[in-house]
Amino acid sequence: MTIALMVGRFQPFHNGHLKLVKLILKVFDTLFIVIGSAQHKATADNPYSLAKRELMIKETLKAENITSYELFALDDARGDEVWMDKLLAAVPRFDVFYTADGITPCLMKKRHFEVRTVDKFDNINATKIRKMMKNNNKEWKTLVPEAVAKILAK
Predict the structure, then answer these.
(1) Model-level pTM?
(2) DSSP string across 36-86
(3) 28, 2 Cβ separation under 8 angstroms
(4) CA 19, CA 2: separation in Å to the nearest integer?
(5) Structural domains in the chain (count)
(6) Which tens digit of pLDDT belongs to each residue from 18-42?
(7) Distance of alpha carbon 3 from its chain centroid, rounded?
(8) What CATH number is associated with residue 140?
(9) Distance CA 3, CA 41 (A)
(10) For 57-83, how does the pLDDT look when each residue is reduced to its tens digit (9 = 90+)?
């Protein structure tokens, strides 16, 4: 069985994340999804709790009939190497790490993991979505899966 890993804050889980999940699962049997900054909630950059982010992901993947994944949560740590140690202790063995950006690819390569980088899909990012929501721009709903829009509309 082949396993891929992706890490994100998912604040919120959006269409770009979903496209990446689907892309990965065309190639790999299972996907480990790590929800980073798990301890944060109710801030401008991290408005959603771990429980709400888990719900967004689970409901979206359920609606897409995607079952070959496991969710993990990971708090931040002081220092990149300490965080990497925590990540590797939190997840079982995996074959490849997928990412769109950040320092994590360098840390993974340094530890001899295969890294596959992807471009952001349709230039979607959670910061843009949060700004749209703050400004009452209803177009944000087009950038997230329907299940996420329903959860966040409540």
Answers:
(1) 0.96
(2) -STT--SSSS--S-HHHHHHHHHHHHHHTT--SEEEEE----SSHHHHHHH
(3) yes
(4) 19
(5) 1
(6) 999 999 999 999 999 999 999 999 9
(7) 16
(8) 3.40.50.620
(9) 29
(10) 999 999 999 999 999 999 999 999 999
